[in-house]
Specification:
The structure holds 2 protein chains of 2 kinds. Chain A is an alpha/beta fold. Chain A has 9 helices and 9 strands. The chains are: A alpha/beta, B alpha/beta.
Chain lengths: 307, 280
């Protein structure tokens, strides 16, 4: 799978594991890679104590697992799911020193060009999921927030629990981070940015076309496997061409541009100055710790979609 | 016998696909007659609204897959054609859809029974679709290793639903089609004629000199959203798909059809998905 890094800005923090085929010998720490049968692979995000929040290692493990599944000619369908209480809590906001997962840890002290490299790489990461040559199915239960939601949006098919919760919270109350709102009209003509729901349940996601089907939580795994088994019967090369056709049209419709705009806005967000009355992750973390930040943010967040 | 019937009642032009024994499947003759008719529809000042519909029990089951007189409908594997010839054929196919899409008068698809593959495409390129609640929509081309080739899928129903419809190939009824935005309205089967007549008579009251530029303005928005480039891109991807080599263990629709007949081939094509789609 090409990772599209050819023209990226090479910075001191540039990481590219895949050029050297490192994924072949990859030691999975935070994902479980299993073959359900010859044709179906299940990748489980396995960081339940952190609600499967993406740190650098988790995303690298996930990428390596997807490379491995792509390299296996028998595999037709890849299921991605989360261990523990939910699919994923988005980016790990408690990013330790040296991590490039947003928010970038201040110890990196990046230049604008470094940030540019991070953002372009993030953009390419998600586009790579979109352009994965095999069928991807996101199996979503519990919370699926922020980057985790964007990840599932990039998968071909989303099957979710009715009480799953999709949503975007972000760094500060006024910003809600950045979302994939600009591309909502590409998901469904029932959903558009003006609707601006920050959170929605699995049942609502299915109704709006973000997810293909919502089922009771205890039926989720069975239902996802049913889809995977049916879709694994399709001729694999024909699927790859068809997916390329659909994604190419999405690019013509502006998907590539919206991705880029989104991640460039993300870049700008790194330089936001918070007003005194605004919830500021960086300041709150320094003054009150990460828990203190979460408490402050919860006071201003939108209500839980399931309540 | 003519495979397309064109008749006018008051100010409304009715185009009826007329191969009822074959579920109005599109063959070369039907496409030739359609191609001859389209310029007439454009020129006919008396027809203010065009209704596309199917004779018999179905709207249209899609491409005629028999392989007899279907050269224009479907490029068969093993056909030795130059890339340029293939390209020309793809362009003719898409131009036909574009021509209907851009007819300078309102168009309505009146859909009952099967509305599959290219039949579904015909309904999609019409301005509005009114369907019977029990009509069946679907696009199972991928099951045969053929590229589904209607860009409007993405525009009408969005990414996830498009992928679902094209990967699963499952059929949905009129009610579901209305829910996902594939059709404008689903009505009980016995009210379909009345509903379409009501709608078309209403539209026919509008000054046709106004509806033509209004439609053009809407379609220019679709062009700005990339539809024109999508048609072209689709042509190219069709050429790519035609170069696909079948893996030895893969189901070969055309081989089975030639050895065991069309019925057996369709049955084998749909068998792996039957249970899944029934339980959908």
């Amino acid at each position: 799978m090409p990772t599209g890094f050819g023209w990226d800005f090479k910075t001191q923090y540039m990481k590219n594991y895949w050029e050297a085929n490192d994924w072949r010998e990859w030691d999975f720490q935070l994902v479980i890679y299993e073959k359900v049968n010859d044709r179906i692979v299940r990748i489980t995000l396995n960081r339940p104590d952190k609600r499967n929040a993406f740190n650098d290692r988790l995303y690298e493990d996930l990428s390596a697992a997807m490379h491995r599944a792509n390299d296996d000619p028998d595999v037709r369908v890849v299921i991605i799911c989360g261990a523990g209480r939910g699919f994923g809590a988005g980016h790990d906001l408690s990013s330790p020193e040296g991590e490039e997962t947003p928010p970038v840890h201040p110890s990196i002290n990046p230049t604008l060009q470094d940030y540019y490299g991070f953002e372009r790489r993030r953009c390419a990461k998600y586009e790579d999921i979109m352009d994965y040559p095999k069928i991807t199915i996101a199996q979503v239960h519990g919370k699926c927030i922020g980057a985790s939601q964007i990840f599932t949006a990039m998968c071909d098919i989303t099957i979710c629990a009715e009480d799953a919760q999709f949503g975007i919270r972000g760094f500060g109350s006024q910003l809600h981070g950045l979302t994939e709102w600009p591309v909502w009209p590409l998901w469904s003509n029932k959903a558009y940015a003006g609707r601006a729901l920050t959170e929605m349940s699995g049942a609502e996601a299915a109704e709006l076309g973000f997810a293909n089907k919502a089922v009771p939580a205890d039926k989720l795994e069975e239902e996802t496997l049913r889809w995977a088994e049916a879709l694994s019967q399709l001729p694999s090369e024909a699927v790859a061409v068809t997916k390329e056709w659909m994604n190419g049209m999405l690019d013509i419709m502006g998907m590539g541009g919206t991705q880029r705009a989104h991640f460039h806005a993300h870049l700008a967000l790194q330089y936001v100055h918070f007003r005194p009355d605004e919830v500021n992750l960086y300041k709150a973390k320094k003054d009150k710790g990460f828990k203190g930040f979460l408490e402050d943010r919860a006071k201003t967040a939108t209500p839980d979609a399931n309540k | 016998m003519s495979t397309i019937i064109y008749e006018k009642i008051d100010n409304i032009g009715y185009v009826t696909l007329n191969r009822p024994e074959e579920l109005n499947a599109m063959n070369d003759q039907m496409l030739a007659e359609l191609d001859a008719l389209l310029p007439q529809l454009e020129m006919d000042l008396e027809a203010k609204v065009i209704v596309f519909r199917g004779a018999g029990k179905d709207f249209c089951a899609g491409q005629d897959l028999t392989g007899v007189n279907t050269h224009e409908v479907l490029s068969e594997p093993g056909e030795h054609l130059t890339v340029k010839k293939r390209m020309e054929a793809e362009r003719r196919r898409n131009r036909r859809w574009e021509t209907i899409f851009n007819l300078a008068k309102p168009t309505i698809a009146q859909v009952h029974g099967h509305c599959l593959g290219t039949g579904c495409y015909l309904a999609m390129v019409c301005d509005m679709t009114i369907a019977a609640e029990d009509a069946l929509f679907g696009d199972p081309l991928l099951r045969m290793g053929l590229l589904p080739h209607m860009p409007l899928w993405l525009y009408l129903v969005g990414m996830k639903r498009t992928k679902e419809m094209l990967y699963t190939g499952c059929y949905i009824n009129g009610i579901e089609a209305e829910q996902i935005g594939l059709v404008n309205k689903a009505v009980p089967r016995d009210e379909l004629d009345t509903e379409v007549e009501r709608l078309s008579r209403g539209i026919a009251l509008l000054p046709c000199d106004a509806t033509a530029p209004a439609k053009d303005a809407i379609n220019s928005v679709m062009e700005a959203r990339g539809l024109g480039a999508c048609w072209r891109f689709t042509n190219n991807m069709q050429l790519v798909m035609q170069q696909r080599k079948m893996l030895p263990e893969e189901f070969d629709f055309f081989k089975v059809r030639d050895k065991q007949g069309l019925k057996a081939a369709v049955e084998q094509r749909d068998r792996p998905f039957k249970k899944f789609c029934e339980e959908r």
